[in-house]
Input
Amino acid sequence: MPRDRPIYIIDDEPQMCRSLEMLLALEDFETRSFPSVEAFFHDLPRLPPGIILSDVALGGLSGLELLQTLPSLDRSDPVILVTGHADIPMAVAAMKSGAADLLEKPFEAQRLLGAVAAVRDRILQSTLLEQRLASLSHRERQVLRQIVEGLTAKQIATRLDISPRTVETYREHLMRKTGATSLAQLVRFAVEARVTCVPL
Output
C-alpha cells in the first residue's frame, strides 16, 4: 500500500519531477507533481494533507513564498525545500519560515529519502501526541495549562481551588497519559500541541 501521506512535488523542470516521482515510487510513496506554486495552490483545497517537496527558485511564486503563505490557507503540510544555489541567508530564511529541511542540488537519493522519512516520523509522533492529549479530562487540561505557565503545585491549587496533593495527583496522571518522562518533557509536549490555548 502507498505511504499514508502523498508527496507533492513542485518544480518547473519536468525532468526533475519525473526523476523524483520515480525515486519516491520505488519507496511506495504516492506522488503528484505541479509546475508552479500557483498550480499547486489552485488544487490545494481538494488535496489531502501531504508532504511538499518544492524547488525554491520557480517562475512565479518561490518556494519560500509557498512556505510563508501556507498558514494563511489553513494548511500545515511540512515543506522540504530544494535549491541549486543555497547560501546562509536563504537557509536562515527557510528555517525561520518553518521549512522541514533544505536540500541543495545535486543531492543523493538517500539524502532526499532520509529527509522525507524524518518528516514522516515527526508527523507520526505528533499524531500520537495529539491522541494522548485528546484523552485528557477538562481538569487535567486546566492543570497542564498552569504547569506550562510555570506555576507551582501550591499556586495551581490556589487558582483552581483544589489541594496541592490533588494537583500532584493530576500531574502524575498527565505524565502517565502523555508518556512524558520528566516535567520538562511534559511542558514541551504541551507547548508543541498548543494545549495552552485551552480555556480555563
Observations:
- Strands lie at 7-10, 31-34, 51-55, 79-83, 101-104.
